[in-house]
Design goal:
- It is a single chain.
- The protein is mainly alpha-helical.
- It is 63% helix and 6% strand.
- The longest helix has 24 residues.
- It is globular.
């Protein structure tokens, strides 16, 4: 569910990568401010990219600055404080909790139960602030679960040909 977006650092100019990293750091700071320190452990490039894209299509002007943080206490880094980071942080928390729930359910990783429990307060807050997003995420994950159950009965060869044959799977 996470980790599909990774910046292609060799293809980016130094300034572009610093800007992307600034959105990542800004999202981390937003997670700390709105949720918990623990929720920062699930920060990913996917939601940093969401914040950047949303910021690009809105008229808001992000504030940029150089700051230190718990993960980089000595060296100041570029941090972008964008209005879209609040929404991206909520999405990050909702996806993290649902991802953990999925691992517990599908792969029987019971050791993740404490991590899920620590995300519940933030998840409730994010759900309260963005109920439509939470509903969309839950609905999409239900569809994904149905698809995964159907897929388990299909041979490996058929799975490899499936994307070429039909898009409804």
């Amino acid at each position: 569910m996470f980790g599909y977006i990774v910046p292609d650092k060799p293809e980016l100019k130094i300034k572009e990568f610093d800007t992307f990293q600034g959105y990542y750091c800004g999202l981390c700071k937003q997670l700390k401010q709105d949720y918990t320190f623990f929720s920062r452990m699930f920060l990913n490039y996917d939601c940093a990219f969401l914040s950047l894209i949303l910021d690009a299509v809105t008229d808001s002007q992000p504030e940029c600055g150089r700051e230190t943080c718990a993960f980089s206490p000595v060296k100041k880094k570029c941090v972008v404080h964008a209005d879209t980071a609040k929404y991206a942080a909520a999405i990050n928390v909702m996806l993290a909790k649902n991802s953990i729930r999925d691992h517990i359910h599908d792969e029987k990783k019971i050791y993740l139960l404490p991590a899920e429990a620590m995300l519940v307060p933030g998840y409730k807050r994010a759900k309260r602030d963005y109920p439509e997003a939470e509903e969309t995420i839950v609905h999409a994950l239900e569809k994904l679960t149905v698809w995964k159950k159907r897929r388990n009965g299909i041979s490996i060869r058929w799975r490899m040909c499936l994307p070429l044959c039909c898009r409804s799977w």
